Amino acid sequence: MEQFIMKGGKPLKGEVVIGGAKNAALGIIAGALLTDDNVTIENLPDVRDINVMLEALKEVGATVKRIDRHTAVINAADVQDVSIDDEYIRKIRASYYFIGALLGKYHKAIVPLPGGCAIGSRPIDQHIKGFRALGTNVEIKNGCVQAEAPDGLKAAHIYLDVVSVGATINIMLASVLAEGRTIVENVAKEPHIVDVANFLNSMGANIKGAGTDTIRIKGVKKLHGTTYAVIPDQIEAGTFMCAAAATRGDVLIKNVIPKHLESISAKLLEMGNTIYEYDEAIRVIGADVQHPTDVKTLPYPGFPTDMQPQMAVTLALAEGTSVVIESIFENRFKYVDELARMGSNIKVEGNVSVIDGVKGFTGASVNALDLRAGAALVIAGLCAEGITIVNEIGYIQRGYEHFDKKLQTLGADIAMVDSDRAIQKFKLRVG
Ligand code: UD1
Known about the structure:
UDP-n-acetylglucosamine1-carboxyvinyl-transferase, Chain, 24% strand, 2 domains, 15 helices, 33% helix, 4-stranded mixed β-sheet, binds uridine-diphosphate-N-acetylglucosamine, alpha+beta
């Protein structure tokens, strides 16, 4: 089993380049099913979730050509199958985007119902509400969502009861080819919603209002091929921002859209760190003494839930008490027990955590419980005295490309190991 091993204590210094946004790319890959023409997607992150999503595309009969590590050409002209295998949905929840895309193009989809996951119950009732409003019969049978619109999809006026990234993207995918004008209210406004909408528009769709509370979609008869580059990953960038601040480093983070990082920058500034914004880069200089602050996760432009663990680790080394409220997922503080093994002082009550800053962490063997919690524990390990081993890094590899290598270029003593021998070798090297 692969693990990350690191010796903490070195401030991160240098430059790092951010890859394409995983969560945008997941919606875009499913969207490639909506045309029979070639779709070229550039700036794809080479991470596990994306590779599984591309495999799932092949499974339904699409061809996928990997031009290079970050570019794929997809052709869905020969798709025969409208059902996704259980294996894929188990590996990656976002394969629920196949429901919207298959429905949109073929008016039929059979996709296993995604189960719960480490961070909360994650229902998909809002997705289903949207599909039904568009004239689809949706049944849950034998663990699957079985959706069919025998007379085609018809535009509708949909109000989402919960602001949901997944439901917003799924409804866009289903309705771009529907007859008439669809209006979706109370939608999510995350940068990747805008990116998926821009991608679909580049295929000839007519989507307006992405990035606001209301999206208007005028159905078109057909979509055509496109070449599209995915936006930079807001969360990967934010993770390196926190890593720079927490290690008291100085890092220039390149290929970012600073506007997407404002909520993270604001918190790091409140803590006393220095931030310089450039057109496509952001520099974070960690202050020696950092102040506590309070954070509440909210839909965009609020503070992202996917940055909550990384920010909590940073706050756990500030001087004083911070409060973090998690308002998106009910179970996103499980990493706190792992962090406690490294000497943090955090109390959790429901969806609130009270973080009493400590002077430093000490190295330990900890488990990555999910993708972002795993990244947060790596940041903690880079700050800790001595050796930290992060286990179950498969979670981290779902969303971070070459996390260890990028950290190495910033001077971190970190390696990916898969045996006791490799661990001993690392320990000998770092002394
Ligand atoms: C997406 C992201 C995930 C991020 C999350 C919130 C992808 C692949 N994943 O997940 O990394 O943490 O947005 O920014 O893009 N909800 C319902 N009913 C629904 C759908 C959602 O009640 O039908 C609730 C959820 O339980 C949660 C909230 O709405 O409390 C937000 O969830 P949602 O935005 O849908 O998250 P995902 O799209 O699953």
